[in-house]
Amino acid sequence: MGVIVCDRHHRNDIDGGYVDHWGLFVVELRGAPQAQHWRERLLDEVYGTREQAMATLCQHAARYQTNALLAEKRRLVLEENQGYLLVLQGRRSGMLIRFFLRRVVWESAPAKTRKG
Fold first, then answer.
1. Are 92 and 83 in contact (CB under 8 A)?
2. Distance between CA 1 and CA 82 in Å, rounded?
3. C-alpha–C-alpha distance, residues 31 and 42, integer Å
4. Which end of the chain has less neighbouring CB within 10 Å, N or C?
5. DSSP secondary structure code for residue 109 in this structure
6. Which of 76, 18, 69, 67 is nearest to 41 (CA)?
7. What is the dihedral of CA 44, 48, 51, 55, to 10 degrees?
8. DSSP letter at 15?
9. CA 83 to chain centre
10. Residues near 96 by Cβ (< 8 Å), separated by ≥ 6?
């Protein structure tokens, strides 16, 4: 295997310029109370500016549906440094879900579709 170069930018197919590639993630607490664990997963990939990636991430946070049994009364999306915090308020309990982005610096193969 040759030298691997980590680069923050990818060539834009439209105008030949460079754009950033972002991974959008969600982290939520899962499992029964006796065996809870944090689960992180990739939601989406976006090509574009950090602002474009954050806007897409905000949409994911606002529309996110959890499998938790929660009689939801209210939801808030709060901005953090690298993402958002979704606060779900129920009648008797609540839930916090984190959404954040990371810049892709290397990949073994390009994504099949480009969004941005």
1. no
2. 33
3. 19
4. N
5. S
6. 67
7. -40
8. T
9. 8
10. 29, 85, 86, 87, 88
Cα-Cα-Cα-Cα dihedral of 83, 23, 52, 114, to 10°?
-160
Q: What is the pLDDT of residues 54-112, one digit of tens each?
A: 999 999 999 999 877 777 889 999 999 889 999 988 887 788 899 999 999 888 877 66
| One-letter amino acid for residue 33 of the chain | P
Sign of torsion, CA 56 113 66 73?
positive
Rg (C-alpha) for the chain, rounded Å, is 17
Rounded CA-CA distance 64/102 in Å is 19
Q: Which residues partner with 97 through β-bridges?
A: 28, 86
Provide mean pLDDT across the span 47-56.
94
